Amino acid sequence: MAQPDSSALTDPQARLSPHQPLTRFYESAEQRPGFVRALFDTTAPSYDRVSWLLGGGTDRRYRREALVRAGLRPGMRLLDVASGTGLVLRAALSAGVAASDITGLDPSHGMLQENRKHTTAPLVQGVGERLPFSDQSFDFISMGYALRHVEDINAFFRELLRVLKPRGRLLVLEIARPRSKIVARLIRWHLVGVIPFLAGFFNQRTQAKQLMDYYWATIENCVPPAQILAALAGAGFCEVNQHLSGGFLSDYSAGKP
Q1: Which residue among 34, 128, 136, 164 is least crowded, i.e. fewest CB within 10 A of its CB?
Q2: Closest CA to 170 of 222, 95, 236, 97
């Protein structure tokens, strides 16, 4: 598991990467953002199918339930960060939030292209550490399974706090490395073995294999949940909480004072 810079443990202004550089995918930390954008541009057309295989068909219901549990209600203005193909965005729609009240943001042009096939909500290309929105613009912010791909967790959380309205809510969905070695091996086998095999029946094996290899590497090396909770609190969030499902699905929720 990654060992963060010790200063990031106590200083919310310090840089906190979600994991150390994964040099079998790219050579340096500076190359990581470009690699991630290219990876998601390439896999965007098959992403929804892979996500369905990953969740066994339960992923849409899980996202909707997590949003409602975290406090999302119709009438709220929602920012969906790292919106991808719009899976969390569509879960918000199914929870009763109007498309006109939702904004999706993602750095990947390919992902946004796929997203636009499913929604009329406005979509913006950008990164979470530098949000192109005014202070106190949103009532709720969501992020689905992408915290492992940001450059600086501390800067990211500070930026989310900036654009949230007072008493606004935040939900970050993530996959945590299971404590049990047996469960970890099973999940790794499912991600890097089973899902690419099944995706092969839909002519998507190559894309799924590349995506799942990187997914597992980021899960295995990501900073632990305790560090993510500490980073949320250090950024100024209150009511910081982790809801764990199945031993590895983590919902991080928090509020703005």
Answers
A1: 34
A2: 236
